[in-house]
Model the fold of this input.
Amino acid sequence: MKNFMMIFVGADYADLGLSPEELQTRMGKWFAWGNKMESAGVLRGGEALTPQIRRVVGENRTVTDLTSAEVKEIVGGYYLVEAEGFDAVEKIAQDYPDFDLGGTVEIREIMVFDH
Done:
């Protein structure tokens, strides 16, 4: 088994103008998906991220503070999962709640370094 990160990329909910009811329904879908992965024994962790972004770039360490309104898409969160390979994680990702909002799941294998 290998460990993978599913990175969630899309618009921030606040920027989409979702109603409180729509947000509640969407959160229910996220909790159901997380519970499904927990029940299957594949979920290893994960978190949602705030929309505030601080970038430190280049040799001069130029600092820029951004919000989701200033970038087209943000990384909104991630899950760590254990699976046989990319195909298995792709299958898990089919239940991602934000596909209908144009969201993206980026799947990355976690690199293991021998000590």
